[in-house]
What does this fold into?
Amino acid sequence: MKPRERVLRAFRKQEGYPDRVPIQFDLCRDLLEYFGKKLGIPVNYTDNLYEDVTYRISGNEIRTAMGSDVIVTGPGRADGFEIKENSDGTWFNEYGMQMKQGMIYVEPVASPIAHAETAADIEAYSFPDPHASGRYRDAEELIKKYRDDYFIIGDIEVTIFSLAQHLVGMEKLMMDMAMGAEYVEALFSACADFQIEIGLRLVELGVDAIWAGDDFGSQTDLLISPEMFGNLLKKHYIRMNNTFKSANPDIILILHCDGAVSKLLDDISEIGYEVFNPVQPGVPGHLPKDLKEEFGNKFVFWGAIDQQYLLPKGTDEELESDIREKIQILGKDRGYMISPAHIIQNDVSPERVEKFIELCKKHGRYE
It folds into this structure.
C-alpha cells in the first residue's frame, strides 16, 4: 500500500483499513546530518520564517527513506533575505524578531512590535511578503515529486496565537488580553490574514492538509481560559479555516497544540480541525483511553509518543510497551498516525530512532 493511501485510510478519508498505522517523525539537524550520511542522501533544508519550523519541513528525502508516510512542506525564506548574526550571537529573522539559540529551540530576545497599544500600531507593522520570490520554491518541487505516493502536509505553524506572542512578547500579550487592550483584536486578525495567504498558496500547490500550530496549554493546564479563547481567538481560526475549505473542500485541517488542552478540544473541533497533534502524553486530561472515548469521533490523533523521557531515556521494553498501547487504543477503528510528540532532538540516539520506526511497523499492522 502506498503511504498516501495508508494515511488517507487511517484519517478516514478513504474506505477500508490501512495495512498498518502510518508513521511520521521529525529530526533535528544533528540527526538529519547523521542519517543523510548513513543513507547517502543529501540533506535538503528549507529555512522557514520561524527558525524551529525549519526542521518540520526539511529532510523529507531522508525521512521517507527511513519509513515516514508523510511529506511536510511549507514556506521558506524570501530570496535575498539573509540572516546576519550580531556580535552577541543574536540575529533578526524575517518577522523582525530578535532571536537567539537556546539549548534546544530558538528563543525570541526582543519583539518587533512590543510597543503596540493601538490598532494603528498593528497596521503600521509590515509582515513579511507571503508571496515573495522563492517563498514556495521547495514546496512546489516536493509536491510535484511526491504527490502521487505520499500524503503531503502544508505547514503554517506559529500561526495566530503563538505568532502574536512572538511579535509583541508573551507576557505583554497575556496581560493585554486580560485587560482588553485595543490592539489585541487587530493583532490576531492581522496574523490570521498573513497565514491565510500562506495557506492558500500551499492549497493551490496541491497539499492534502494544512497544519496550524499554536500552543494553548502548559504541562498542567490551559494558558488561557476557554472563555478567553472563545471571545478573543476562536473567530479568527474559524475565518482562516473556512477560507481554506472554500479553496478546497477536501483539504484536511490539522492543529498542533502542545500542553494539557483537553478542556479546549470541543472548541478546537468546532473551529474545523479534524486532526489533533501532538496528543502530548503525561499531561492532565490526555490519557489515551479517555481521549479516544470522548473525542475519537471528532478527531484523528497524531503523535502521543513521549520524547521528554521515553525516547531519550526509557528502555527498549518501555518504548515497545508504550508504542503497542498507543496503537491498540488510539489506532482502534483507524483514526491514528503514530509519531513522537515533537521534533526528535539529539538526546535521542540514532539507534533509538531506528528502534522507534521498527517497533511502529512491528505493532502497527491491522489484522
In short: The chain has a mean pLDDT of 97. The chain has 14 helices and ten strands. The chain has one domain: 3-79+111-363.
